[in-house]
Design goal:
This protein is α/β, with parallel strands linked by helices and 231 residues long. Helices cover 42% and strands 9% of the residues. It has a five-stranded parallel β-sheet with strand order 2-1-3-4-5, with helices on both faces. Helix 4 (100-107) runs parallel beside helix 6 and helix 6 packs parallel to helix 7.
């Protein structure tokens, strides 16, 4: 059952408060403090470059997040240094050595899955003078991954979203991410911003992140997409 349609003024207010809440969840340092340690095993190493929706915030444990569900089912060795609140520019202070792209490059994975962009909607609204910088940084990060991992398969997923109300920036950033993926010849998965749309029962108590059922739905949808790509 879909959520009740909101009027535009109410939707704007709710979106603004929710945005503040998602930003607040990044109270931890926005950059990781240690390199990711690749797990032992013989399966392909798959690294995830993402935010709280890939870190698994809102789940009861790491084994319930979508990346770990898929990795376990497929025998992947998961490297997941994703960070709450992180965007291509949102809540980010490190660009270059020590940031997530450099950590992923150092891990030398066989596959990189990029799920970034949700949190940049908040930077887009708060800092209109830096909107072009979001688009530029998307290209910079994706090109760094391609140049640093020339033999890796790179899969870029349409940025996730979390409310039925969708500011114009959601589609704008989706288009920029797709543009960046095409520029480096990466695989691209469309539609992820609507995976949990209109299903409040899939949201955690904070109203911002998926719960275990929500992450299971994301895992199911992405598993189909990865299979179609031959992963």
């Amino acid at each position: 059952m879909r959520c009740m349609r909101m009027t535009k003024p109410l939707a704007a207010v709710i979106t603004a408060f929710a945005a503040a809440g998602l930003a607040a969840c990044a109270a931890i340092p926005p950059e990781p403090q240690a390199t990711a340690t690749p797990p032992d095993g013989d399966g392909p190493m798959v690294a995830f470059y993402g935010d709280s929706y890939t870190l698994g915030t809102g789940a009861t444990g790491a084994d319930a997040r979508w990346s770990t569900i898929i990795s376990a089912d497929r025998g992947w060795r998961e490297v997941n240094p994703s960070v709450n609140g992180l965007g291509f520019i949102n809540n980010r202070s490190v660009f270059g050595d020590g940031d997530l792209p450099s950590i992923i490059i150092d891990a030398a994975p066989d596959v990189v899955i990029v799920t970034m962009g949700l949190n940049d909607n908040f930077a887009y609204e708060r800092r209109p003078d830096e909107r072009d910088r979001i688009r530029e940084q998307i290209g910079i990060d994706l090109n760094r991954l391609r140049d640093g991992l020339p033999d890796a398969r790179i899969v870029v997923v349409e940025p996730f979203w979390y409310t039925d109300a969708r500011p114009d920036s959601v589609q704008i950033i989706i288009d920029w991410v797709r543009e960046g993926a095409e520029a480096i010849g990466a695989d691209y998965i469309a539609g992820a911003s609507r995976y949990i749309e209109g299903r409040p029962e899939l949201m955690a108590a904070d109203g911002l992140h998926p719960n275990d059922d929500g992450y299971a739905v994301i895992a199911e949808r992405l598993d189909v997409e990865f299979a179609a790509l031959g992963l």
